[in-house]
Each structure stands twice: as structure tokens, then as C-alpha cells.
Amino acid sequence: MPDGKDILREWQDAMQLIADAARGATGRAELPKALLAPMQRQLELLQEVVERERMLQADVLGRLLDPMDGVLNLLEESGKTFRAQADALAEASAALEQTATLMRSQAEIYESTIRAFREPAELARRVSGAKPRPRGGRSGKKPKGKKQS
């Protein structure tokens, strides 16, 4: 495809041919035939100019929209990342909740075990008349803090 200067030069040449044909055929019947070829060439050149203009507009518009597409692609990827993070946090939360439940169960089993071992010792102290064990510290009490569910 010729560049813009070539198209302009061809246009000027076609106009010159029309002018030459008009001067040379003044008063003759073949004037329309002589003008037809240069005018046809002018029409072809005009179509080429219009097509180039369309291509240029499409190229410019594409270049203008490329950055916006890039931003939208980044935002889309960020949304996917946020969703993945939210899913991971939800899974971690569930895992922590399960761990807390298991630890509460372990604490209850541990406390029950201690009570089970203390009962015979306390009974033996009472029966033998030995001095009772002091009731200080945490013995027999539930830990302070969060309520048990």
C-alpha cells in the first residue's frame, strides 16, 4: 500500500490527466471517454484514503483502550486473589475453631482425670484423719477467661 505522499502524487497526476484530456479534447465527442480513466483512478484513490482513515481510527482507538484493558485485567486478577484469600481465611477460621473445640475437650478430660485421682486421696485423708489438703490455687476450679460452651 503506498504511503500518503504517493497517494497525493497519484491524485495530482490523475487531476493533471483530466486537465490535459479536457484541453486536448475540447469540442470533440471522445471527451467523456478520455476523462473516464483519470476519474476512475481518482475514485480508487479516494477509496484508498477512506480505507486508510478507517484503519488509522481503529488503530488509534485500540491504542487508547489498551491501558484500560490492562487496568481491568489487573482488577479482575485482584478480585480473584481477594476471593482466594477470603476462602483461605475461612478455612483457617474453621480449622482454628476445630482446634479450640479439641483443646476444650482435652482440658475437660485432663481436669476429670485430676479429679478422679484426687477423690481416692481425699477419701483416704478423711478416713485416716490426716490433715486435709489446702484448697488454694486452681485446684477444683475452672480456668478463668472464656466461657465454656
Structural commentary:
The protein is mainly α. It has one domain (4-125). The model has no long low-confidence stretch (mean pLDDT 81). Helix 1 runs antiparallel to helix 2 (31-128). The protein is built from 2 helices and no strands. It is rod-shaped, with a radius of gyration of 48 Å. The longest helix is centred in the middle third of the chain and has 98 residues, at 31-128.
Keywords:
mainly alpha, 0% strand, 149 residues
What's the quick description here?
This protein has helices at residues 4-24, 31-128. By secondary structure, the protein is mainly alpha-helical.
Low-confidence stretches: none
Mass-distribution shape: rod-shaped
Strand content: under 5%
SS field, number of helical segments: 2
Indicate the percent of residues in helices: over 70%
Largest sheet: none
- The H/E string reads HH
Chain-averaged pLDDT: 81
For the record, the count of structural domains works out to 1
Task: Give me the Rg, rounded.
Answer: 48 Å
| SS-based class | mainly alpha
Euclidean distance between termini CA atoms:
82 Å
Please outline the helices and strands.
Elements: H1 4-24, H2 31-128
Helix pairs in contact: 1-2
